[in-house]
User: What shape does this take?
Amino acid sequence: MGKIMIINGSPRAPKSNSKKYADLFMKNCTVPTKYFAITKKNHLELCKTMEDFTDVLFTFPLYADGIPVTLMNFLKTLEENPPKQKPRISVLINCGFIEPEQNDIAVKMLRFFCKKQGYSFGSLLRIGSGEAILTTPFKVFVTRKIKRLAISVSEGRNENLKATMPLPKKIFVRASTSYWENCGKRNGITREQMSIMEIEKE
Amino acid sequence: MNLILSDRPFDLPVDNRSMEFIDLSRLKISNCMGCFGCWTKTPGKCVIRDDAVKVYPKIAESNRVLYISKVKYGSYDTVMKTMLERAIPVQQAFIRLLQGETHHVQRAVASKRATIIGYGDISDEEKEIFTQLIGRNAKNMCFEDYRVIFLQENELEKAVRKEVMSWGK
Assistant: This one.
């Protein structure tokens, strides 16, 4: 039986949506799974630990149209310190936009890494509306896909999955505006304050 | 303003009144920690008070940019990528439709003509990914047009000089 190592590449790992997606993955996975978050100091330890696993699942958010620096730095260390047995690598990526396809370039970067470094690529789940979906009734759309991803990774299959809120884009824009407005409200910041056009000057 | 953002030093004849050269490798810039403070606590202002706060206002106001970055895995390498991730105060949390896709609303960000130089030993596959990345950036970073150029590191000095000289014409 395989063993899955989940590696969270989000810069805010403990509070991240990537962590919540990882938790859902573990809840729905029938093979042994262990969770790790990338920190500045644990790169080498993670590279070494990888030897004990058949599969790695990278979970991370889209950052500036690509892979977050937290994960890129880890990949650079992994390139220099590969495990003796290379696990299969799967990806669970999320972005705040409604289109899961906005994650595609970051996925291509990961696929390129795998190809160049000799890791086989397993399964993929691209999540759109990933910032808020878990707080809405649409959570079921993503948990269903995470369950499928867990089965795919456990069985060593190559599935390409995606999930997002089933909303017309204009409605999504309105819903996301309310979501962010509420985030500001919790900090005592109004929608008008959040909408200022001014950017700080040096 | 014209802005050159580079992940390595260059010896360039820069006219300070209309052009600024920033060597990111000399600055202290931490990773974005994804706190969304610049959207929901101190809008337009990053809560991490390091050198990045001197750079993103300049990115926003520039109408011509030249980014010079090593390419890694089809991405900007981490020096440039770290800065670009820290530039999100120039956007709002709010989302709009742009060419049929959802994107963040921009604050006072000037439309830009962008030239992006990716350097290093770059395979054709990486070039393809990097070019697609810049296409995505164009939508999120207000590039009204852009060019992507790939070079070896030893070709940079000459090419960057040529590019900058062409701006004066």
